[in-house]
């Protein structure tokens, strides 16, 4: 389980949610499935997800708002939209909000798996990039101070990486 | 904009809104069936690796596919009936059937607002000689108006009653009005005039909105042949 990608799955169509969750769980994903935008935001605050797969049209908080909140609150989380209601204007809005992928239902599982794996890779790269920049910052500050000060900065960095 | 043009444009918008949201529902059914079929393949792949095939799970999945196929069939039939309401401008309409179809067709817009629906239809059929498309549009407009006037999660009531040989349809909300769609409110009387009826906006005791449509047994002055 430790090596699996932590995936948050959000869809108000419960039958779909249950089935896709089982299928992804049989592969490389540790899936948490929720059926509303509110539950998704709440779940993401409690558990560190790496990727979120989000439906667009849901009662209450819709997919676009969920995307916006997840991206704002979880720096390195990648979000993929999976919708039965795809439209160019919403795809553009999602892209501007930082979505990694925008897929339409029904979607071939291989296509979905590829996009989720790529999204995960991007997350890993972004975290590495961030870590390198932070380390460079610490070094470029000249005399970095006491070992305790360096440790404090490294801890701060780790906190941000979570 | 002329009244005729406004009616045509609003009619197209209504048709588009219903078909778009309902085709979305059908697409959801297709997506579920696709995933269930995929899950069967996944389980077969596991069985191919020497594990005993999980027959009970196959049975369960097969039943779920059957349920979704039936759900999809029902949706397509309703959508088809809805499309056929445009065939003839005036025909004999069973109002209960028409309302039941509309309730199903408008489920998505309601659930998006988390509204609950309570219906009360008479046991006896109420047949009207009317324009089924405009009639559905008028009732749908009322539901939209009531839903848009309040916050999410409200209770929507839809009541059909016999009245002077015709029918009385009441659409009301439980919650106080927080905003009203003036354009839609002003369009409703135009629609009702086309149907030979009238609409009344009645405030409910708690600040909510109740829309009452009175419909004649047949559209006055209509000399076209009616289908039974």
Account of the 3D structure:
- The complex is a heterodimer of chains A (162) and B (228).
- Chain A has one domain: Rossmann fold.
- Helices cover 55% and strands 16% of the residues of chain A.
- Chain A contains 6 helices and 5 strands, in the order E-H-E-H-E-H-E-H-E-H-H.
- Chain A has helices spanning 14-25, 37-46, 63-73, 88-96, 109-140, 147-161, and strands spanning 5-10, 29-34, 51-54, 78-83, 101-104.
- Chain A starts with a strand and ends with a helix.
- Chain B has helices at residues 3-48, 55-84, 95-105, 107-112, 132-149, 182-194, and strands at residues 91-94, 116-120, 127-130, 155-163, 166-173, 198-203, 209-215.
- Chain B folds into 2 domains: 3-84; 93-215, Heat Shock Protein 90 (2-Layer Sandwich), CATH 3.30.565.10.
- Chain B is elongated, with a radius of gyration of 22 Å.
- Helices cover 54% and strands 19% of the residues of chain B.
- Chain B has 228 residues and is an alpha+beta fold.
- The model of chain B has no long low-confidence stretch (mean pLDDT 89).
- The chains are: A alpha/beta (162), B alpha+beta (228).
Short descriptors:
heterodimer; A: 162 residues; alpha/beta; Rossmann fold; 5-stranded parallel β-sheet; elongated; B: 228 residues; alpha+beta; Heat Shock Protein 90; 2 domains; 5-stranded mixed β-sheet; two-stranded antiparallel sheet; 54% helix
């Amino acid at each position: 389980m430790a090596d699996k990608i932590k995936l948050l799955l959000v869809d108000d169509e419960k039958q779909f949610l249950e089935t896709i969750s089982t299928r992804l769980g049989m592969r490389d994903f540790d899936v948490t499935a929720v059926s509303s935008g509110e539950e998704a935001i709440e779940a993401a605050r409690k558990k560190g997800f790496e990727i979120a797969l989000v439906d667009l049209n849901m009662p209450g908080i819709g997919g676009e708002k969920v995307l916006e909140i997840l991206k704002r609150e979880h720096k390195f989380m990648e979000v993929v939209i999976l919708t039965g209601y795809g439209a160019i204007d919403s795809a553009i809005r999602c892209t501007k909000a930082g979505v990694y992928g925008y897929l339409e239902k029904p979607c071939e599982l291989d296509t979905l798996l590829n996009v989720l794996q790529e999204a995960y890779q991007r997350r890993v790269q972004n975290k590495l990039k961030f870590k390198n920049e932070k380390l460079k910052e610490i070094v470029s500050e000249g005399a970095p101070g006491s070992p305790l000060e360096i440790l404090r900065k490294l801890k701060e960095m780790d906190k941000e990486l979570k | 904009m002329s009244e005729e043009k406004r009616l045509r444009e609003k009619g197209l918008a209504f048709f588009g809104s219903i078909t778009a949201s309902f085709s979305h529902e059908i697409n959801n059914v297709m997506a579920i069936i696709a995933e269930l079929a995929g899950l069967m393949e996944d389980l077969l792949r596991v069985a191919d690796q020497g594990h005993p095939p999980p027959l009970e799970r196959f049975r369960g999945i097969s039943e779920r596919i059957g349920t979704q196929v039936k759900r999809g069939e029902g949706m397509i039939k309703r959508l088809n009936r809805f499309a056929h309401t445009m065939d003839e401008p005036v025909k004999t309409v069973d109002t209960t059937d028409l309302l039941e179809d509309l309730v199903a067709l408008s489920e998505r817009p309601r659930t998006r607002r988390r509204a609950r629906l309570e219906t009360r239809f008479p046991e006896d059929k109420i047949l009207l000689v009317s324009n089924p498309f405009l009639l559905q549009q008028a009732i749908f407009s009322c539901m939209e108006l009531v839903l848009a006037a309040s916050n999410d999660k409200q209770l929507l009531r839809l009541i059909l009653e016999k009245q002077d040989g015709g029918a009385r349809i009441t659409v009301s909300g439980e919650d106080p009005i927080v905003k009203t769609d003036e354009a839609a409110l002003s369009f409703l009387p135009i629609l009702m005039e086309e149907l030979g009826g009238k609409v009344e906006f009645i405030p409910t005791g708690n600040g909510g909105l109740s829309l009452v449509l009175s419909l004649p047994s047949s559209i006055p002055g209509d000399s076209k042949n009616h289908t039974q």
